[in-house]
């Protein structure tokens, strides 16, 4: 008979094994309705990480753990009852055989893979054991070397301690010998001193002169050192003095330049004032036509006075003397003669004050003998005549 049960068995889409709802626990995804083994679905859920969404293995529908529910089935009769005459169906048996052969092949491939893994692990284990044996050998060798080094260090330490003890003993012996040597040296010096008492007087004088010579040499050496230090100080002072002299020379040159500039300014001012006075005299000549002869006589008198004051001293009496000898003032009126004498006196005072200032400047400039003044300042014959004329014209 042919088997009447031609419906295919349901399988799990994860493990591809038959679903037996009577003896196995099944779970279903409520969103899509697909059914799986409970263990397969839980492993699938655990495989998915938290960041990755959980999807159905069949339709790839996203779901959550709340959408998973367990299925419960009820059955009637024998659970292991088979269909009638199912064994007589060769197609079904062939499919079962093919399925079993596929499973056997899968198991064989898995066994071979596991055997390869076991062989690799065995090789790794052997290699690790070999490495461990080598490391143990190296460790034992290092321990033996460390023990030998410790023993050698202990021997060296003992040798060093014995050498230190011997060195201390030798040091003490050396100190004792040095003390004995000093004592023998003192005894020898005492013997030499006692033997030197028998020397002759000439040798004693030679020794005394030698001692005095050594003393004088020491004193001379000390004096030479003192003189050397004094010479060094003097050289330093000389250098400072030279620098100071250079600075003073520069300052004197600046003062000379300033004096020349000041003299030039004074000359320019006096020339300007002279021009102004001459212009005023020209204007006054128009009003003083009647007194022109007396003014010319006054000018002649003034020139004569200045020529005589140039040959005589700078005092006021010598300046007034030629004015009194000529007797020219009688040709004027009393008021005009008084004016001339007053102007001469004022002129003399101004001239003397100006000459004193020039002499003070020249004495300050000629402090340094190496740089003499390039032009004479205190010559009254050069400066006084035109200065006196200007002062006289101003007073008139």
From TrEMBL:
<keyword id="KW-0863">Zinc-finger</keyword>
<keyword id="KW-0175">Coiled coil</keyword>
<dbReference type="Pfam" id="PF13445">
    <property type="entry name" value="zf-RING_UBOX"/>
</dbReference>
<feature type="coiled-coil region">
    <location>
        <begin position="97"/>
        <end position="124"/>
    </location>
</feature>
<dbReference type="InterPro" id="IPR027370">
    <property type="entry name" value="Znf-RING_euk"/>
</dbReference>
<keyword id="KW-0862">Zinc</keyword>
<dbReference type="GO" id="GO:0008270">
    <property type="term" value="F:zinc ion binding"/>
</dbReference>
<dbReference type="InterPro" id="IPR001841">
    <property type="entry name" value="Znf_RING"/>
</dbReference>
<feature type="region of interest" description="Disordered">
    <location>
        <begin position="316"/>
        <end position="336"/>
    </location>
</feature>
<protein>
    <recommendedName>
        <fullName>RING-type domain-containing protein</fullName>
    </recommendedName>
</protein>
<feature type="domain" description="RING-type">
    <location>
        <begin position="12"/>
        <end position="60"/>
    </location>
</feature>
<feature type="coiled-coil region">
    <location>
        <begin position="231"/>
        <end position="265"/>
    </location>
</feature>
<dbReference type="InterPro" id="IPR013083">
    <property type="entry name" value="Znf_RING/FYVE/PHD"/>
</dbReference>
<keyword id="KW-0479">Metal-binding</keyword>
<feature type="coiled-coil region">
    <location>
        <begin position="167"/>
        <end position="194"/>
    </location>
</feature>
